[in-house]
Amino acid sequence: MHFWLLFLILGVVTFSTAMRQQAVAVKGKLLCGTAPARNIRVKLWDEDTGPDPDDLLAQGYTDDQGMFMLQGDTAELTTIDPVFKAYHDCNDNLKDEEREMIPA
């Protein structure tokens, strides 16, 4: 019994120390044509696979000049897969809903 308890404790400690704190930042300017894209919702995600849900690292809005700065961190076993998303309706006069843009 004591062996299994010790084995379980060591397994949890090993697993928790294998997690690495990782950080990412993105800074830029969004344009709609040639004009600054103002008040656009932007998010920075860590995309995960399997049962681990994606992690929202940071979110915000562009300023009056279309500028944004996001930074975030998370603890992961593997290397993080950062994804930047901007939710906009630029050049979309026909639809009322926002579109999601994921840069390549």
List the helices and strands and how they pair.
Blueprint: H1 2-18, E1 20-29, E2 31-32, E3 35-36, E4 41-46, E5 55-61, E6 67-76, E7 82-88, E8 99-101
Antiparallel strand pairs: 1-6, 2-3, 4-5, 4-7, 7-8
Nearest-integer average pLDDT: 81
For the termini, the CA-CA separation is 53 Å
- Care to count the β-strands? 8
- Strand content bin: over 45%
Number of helices in the DSSP assignment: 1
Family: Belongs to the nematode transthyretin-like family.
Organism: Wuchereria bancrofti
Keywords: Secreted, Signal
Protein name: Transthyretin-like family protein
Could you provide a short overview of the structure?
The protein has 104 residues and is an alpha+beta fold. Helices cover 16% and strands 45% of the residues.
Keywords:
104 residues, alpha+beta, Immunoglobulin-like, four-stranded antiparallel beta sheet, 1 helix, 8 strands, 16% helix, elongated, signal, Transthyretin-like_sf, secreted
